Amino acid sequence: MNCTVEEISIEISENADAEQSLPIEEGLNDFNDLMTGISDRKPLSVLIKSTKTGEVLGGMQGRSSLGLLFIDLFYLPPELRRMGLGTDILNRFEDEGRRRGCSAAFLYTISFQAPDFYKKHGWEEFGRISCEPEGTSRIFMKKTL
């Protein structure tokens, strides 16, 4: 597509849907594939489901790409914490990353979330940035797989 500046508009949106986001994702993926010669990105989820209803109760979501594993989201309802499920989910996620050939894993957590959980499992902090509310930080962590 060839456009001039006069033929485009710029919009700010809080609710772009998947269809509107697809050209951004596909465009960046195509560029990365062209630059690296590698197209190995794959989503990854480890889900905790109710055996009665099949409902997803929690779990971990992320992806693998270019030999790296990314954890994007991790949630367990309070009643399922402190039962070893978090460790099991993390281990399964990391194991699948290794199976996919990933050599390292990355995530960020918030200071009131789970940095100590990750440290207990061999993750190390490599960056921190302050955020709201005051005294809170986003903590960037990595682990060699």
UniProtKB/TrEMBL annotation:
SUPFAM superfamilies: Acyl-CoA N-acyltransferases (Nat). Residues 8-145 form the N-acetyltransferase domain. It comes from the Bacteria. This is GNAT family N-acetyltransferase. CDD domains: NAT_SF. Transmembrane segments: none annotated. Keywords: Transferase. InterPro entries: Acyl_CoA_acyltransferase, GNAT_dom. Signal peptide: none annotated. GO terms for molecular function: acyltransferase activity, transferring groups other than amino-acyl groups.
